[in-house]
Amino acid sequence: MSVDFFETECKELSRQDLSFGLCDDQDGTIAYSSISTDDTWIATVINSSAKEITFTAIDNCINILKEGKEDKEKSCDGMLTFDDSLYLVELKEKAPGGWISIAKKQLENTIRLLNEHHNLDNFRYKKAYACNKRHPYFTVVEASEKKSFFERTSGFRIDIQAEVIVK
Q1: Into how many domains does the chain fold?
Q2: Among 24, 43, 128, 158, which residue has the least CB neighbours within 10 Å?
Q3: pTM flag (> 0.70)
Q4: For the residues of the chain, what is the DSSP string, one character each?
């Protein structure tokens, strides 16, 4: 069964705000973007060039069943698309201890699913963000892990921080 990640009811209207938040209420509902209050923001999107950006919820919205099973595939919370860029985002509100490896697995699985259903060659810039409201500052990812992630995911760069900078 073919799944369309790009033309879906999970896709929000584009926005050009200079900054906005990405939110996940952590209650089984879909992630969403917001300009209302930064109390609910898990990640902040910095859009200093006022580019037209589209947020599409993935987890709890684009449901893909594991092959031959009734279990849903694990996926990241959503994606941002603009120009020739695709940014995947996993939003966490967890205390320290294992959240980064869980987020990376969800991002990698989403990338695998995207590649199975779409040709991503039109995207020149591909990034994967693991964001945690309780740990908003940049976490250093070793060069060897960055390289390994890049190779495993067909060209996605990994960042672990709660600011998504749009260039």
Answers
A1: 1
A2: 158
A3: yes
A4: ----SSSSTTBPPPB--SEEEEE--SSSSPPEEESS-TTS-SEEEE-TT---BEEEE-TTTS--BPTTSSSBPP--SEEEEETTEEEEEEEE---SSSHHHHHHHHHHHHHHHHHHH---TT-SEEEEEEEETTS-S-----HHHHHHHHHHTTS-EEEESSEEE--
